[in-house]
Structure formats: structure tokens, C-alpha cells
Amino acid sequence: MTKAFFVASLRLPKLPSALLGLSLLTTGCASTGLRTPGDPLEPVNRAVYTFNEKADKYVAKPVAQAYEKIIPNVVQKGVRNFFNNLGDVITLANDLLQLKFTAASRDGLRVVSNTVFGGLGLVDVAGMRGITRGNEDFGQTLGYWGMGPGPYLMLPLLGPSTVRDGVGRVADSFVDPLWYYPEVAPRNVAAGLRLVDQRATLLSTERVFEQAALDRYSFLRDAYLQRRLNLIYDGNSPVDSNADSEELDDPGEGSADNPAPPAAAPKQ
Question: What's the pTM value of the predicted model, to 2 decimals?
Fold first, then answer.
């Protein structure tokens, strides 16, 4: 597997595409009524989605099930904490790029506390003290500064994305501490372990997604796009969820395709 495969899996469970919907479903953001970009590549996206489903069925899911069955829970928790700590570094960088200095102070404190006192992040010391994790990436940073999402994309193995989020994933890879580890073999093993752990976290909620909608592709797409919009505005999108259809069709300032300028961006 290539570095690009692991790089693009930084911030959220991206493998498989269908099962990312589980994490989206649990956020409660799948039905906000906010305007989302179109899906002009739907035929191709659906074909890729089908491929991802089969890859998950025959590869990713069995591996994740074996991991969950064999590895003790305490070890799984330590692994998850370790990779979350690496993710907090990416969040911190994007806090600063979005001028969210209060959030940057919090996330910086998390990284320092967990790295120094938590055994490189194996123990979430900051979480025990009530310092919660942030969730920022470069795709959100681009949206914060006004870049539109572009068309929806279903990427092979990597799952849901947009043009903007795809660019963001590449940019985040340059901040991810994992890719600065000099030994190639251990680094790639760690990257693979991160993917397996991400997939394992979705096993317990898989049935919910399977029963969520008749058209899983559409459900996943809409949930992903609306969740990303919600993240960009930190849950405070200026788009009125009760607006009529004509207003939702108008890509004016504050819409998903034309977010409000930084002055109207969410508070820190």
C-alpha cells in the first residue's frame, strides 16, 4: 500500500466509504437542511462506492473483527489514544491557520500533556482532566477562508470527499507526525494499524447504518456533506435550516459553496 493511501485517511475513518456513514450518523447531522454541493459525478461515484463496499466486506471488516477479538481492550484504547494524539497535532495547526487561538491553546495543551505525561499519547491525560479534543483539518481551514467544496467525490478505498477536502488531506499529511518517522517499515505498519483501529470503532454501530436508508449511497453522501459544512462553521452555520427551497438554491454568502468571510466565521 502506498503512502498516499494512508495519508488520505488522517482525520476520519475513510475505509470503507460506506461505513464512514456510521460515524456521521452518530453525530446527528444527517438532516440539517443545509445546502450542499451537487453530485455531477454520481454514476462514477456510485461505481466506486460499490467497489469500496466489496473491499470492506472481504478485507477491511474481517481484519477489523479479528483485531477486536484478539487484541485486549486496554491495548486497543492505548492505540486509539496514541493516534488521537497525532491527530491533535493536525488540529492544532489548523486552529492556528483559522486564527482560533483559544482552541489552539486547548489543543496545544492536550498534545503536550498527553505526549509528556501520557506516554506519547497512550494515556489520554488531558481527557481525564476534562480537556476535550478539537476537530479541525485543512479542508475546514479552506472552507473557513471562503473556498467552496467543489463536486462530491467518492474515492477508491478512501471514501467520501470533495475537491476541497481532497486538497486538505494532502496538506494535512505534511503536519502528521507519523510521516516524519524515519524508518519506513515501522511507519507503514503504524499507518496500517491506524486504519484497522478506525474500522474497528465502527463495528458496534454497523447495524444502525444498514437500517438507516434504502439508498445507502445517497444517505452517506448527504450525511458527509452536511457534516463537513457543520464542522466548518463549528455547528453555527449562517444558513437558515428553515429557509425555503428558493433560498437554498441561491449560492449566496454563507452557503456551502460560498461560506461567509472570516469575520462571520465561528467564534473560537
Answer: 0.76
